[in-house]
Amino acid sequence: MENVTDPRQHINEEPRDDLMDTAIGFGVMFGFMFVVFTAAVVIKFVIT
Prior knowledge:
The protein has one helix spanning 18-47. It is mainly α. The protein is rod-shaped.
C-alpha cells in the first residue's frame, strides 16, 4: 500500500446497513430504559 490516500485501496470488507444499526440501537436503548422505568415505578409503589 504505497498511496494511503487512494480510496481504491481501502476496500470496505464488511458493508453495514447504518439505518438498521441505528434502528436496532434505538430499540435496544428504548427497551432498556422502559425496563428501568418500570422497575422504578414498581419500587416506588412497594415503598409507599
